[in-house]
Amino acid sequence: MTEIVPVLFYGALILGVLVLVHELGHFLVAKWLGVRVVSFSIGMGPRVIGFSRGGTDYRISALPLGGFVRMAGDTPEAEDRSGAPDEFLSKPWWARALITAAGPGANLVFALLLNMIVFMTGFEGRDLATHIASVKPGSAAARAGLEGQDRIVALDGKRATSISELDQAAEGAVKAKHPVLLEVRRGSQTVALRMTPDQVPTFTDGVDWYMGTTVGEVLIGYPAYESGLREKDEILSIDGKPVRTWTELASTLRSKPGATRLLVVRRADDTFPLHVKTTPEGTIGISPSGTLTYRQTYSVPQAIGLGFQQTIWVTGQIYSGLWSFVTNPVRLHSTIAGPIAIAQVASQQARGGIQQLITFGTFISLALMVMNLLPIPILDGGHILFAVIEGFRRKPLSLKTQLSFQRVGLFVLIGLVVFAFYNDVSRVSQRKRAEADITKRLRPAAPADTAVPVPGR
User: Is 444 buried (19+), middle (13-18) or exposed (0-12) by CB count in 10 A?
Assistant: First the structure.
């Protein structure tokens, strides 16, 4: 029960806000273009409370999930359609296309604004301590005098106990007019290593930074999640080969993509084997534990630029993912997610802080935009396509043709929704089975003298 409540809350929060933003986009542009909006609802289902103004019923409905906008005469078969100039279908094709595109457009603008706000208020990123696990022989790091187990303390007189601090110190050290001093903690001693300024940009090449093999986060929907792996589990070996650093772990997994690997895992005081199949990229969906974080704020112009960059990059990643489904449909089963998975991930991200939750929200907002713009009848993209076709033909498609396409679109959409729900339930069920199996294996056997006697013996 304690796990279900935050999942429901954060799932409703993310989906509710983003769907509401989407509908608000339709509403505002419809009002601007003179379309009569019959009702604007926050939430779904029966009306709870509200008021009427300007011919619109503004209301709060029972289910706190998103909302909806109902415009006068918005479908050819609408009962209230009379051909009045303030009806949706009485507007020219370009106006209808604009109103329809305003929903996905609102999701895009909302994601962009959130990204900008994150950079303005302080971007938090993952960081690592400057603790060296190993140094590749003959590398720039080896030539600089670095060794395995060294801990970098300072660079050119500036504190550098984390990667972000080291990067900041390196920016100034590159411009130095004197030999650069690198302070390193080696065992119980502090060692001073000297470098020339031109060595600074590459002196960490060949360094494997120390990260243990303790799991920090298990990504929902990936093989590690379905196998029952948990946060704080420590991976000791893969296929009998010991792994001591995260780099070793990752490279060992990548060496056999799409293969079932035997992991030996330590959980608290217990050790157990676990079979996990890697993805086609050779990953299992885990992140390291014990990483540090850094916080960096940006000026307004910088935040605007970075916000645009982040929004464009995430949108590109979503379209790239869609294209991978087209070229490799088998991946649909392992990657498509529905509201259950979204709610789970939202709850997981919320545990990492408000910024992680907001960042996840921007991703879902952009995903809603991309999905709604697909040229599938019944989605916004399908309605935009009908309007554009009308613009080229100088007359709308026949009602029979539109209804036929909408039936096909509805069939496709229902199929995707059912498939997404099936995937969500399947993942959760698999996870529960895997956890139960691990628990059963870790449960100590009952001592012989506590066995329950069999009647009649």
Answer: exposed
- DSSP for 25-44, written as a single string: HHHHHHHHTTPPEEEEEEEE
- For 129-209, CATH number out of 2.30.42.10, 3.20.20.70, 1.20.200.10, 3.40.50.2020 equals 2.30.42.10
Q: In this structure, how many other beta carbons lie within 10 angstroms of the beta carbon of residue 309?
A: 12
Residue ranges, CATH 2.30.42.10, the chain: 129-209, 215-290
Which residues lie below 8 Å from residue 153, measured CB to CB, with a gap of 6+?
A: 130, 159, 160, 161, 183, 184, 185, 190
Closest C-alpha to 97, from 395, 382, 377, 394: 382
One DSSP character per residue, 390-440 reads HHHHTSPPPHHHHHHHHHHHHHHHHHHHHHHHHHHHHHHHHHHHHHHHHHH
pLDDT digits 0-9 by tens, 46-94: 889 999 888 889 998 887 767 888 898 877 666 667 778 888 888 999 9
Q: For the domain 215-290, what is the CATH code?
A: 2.30.42.10
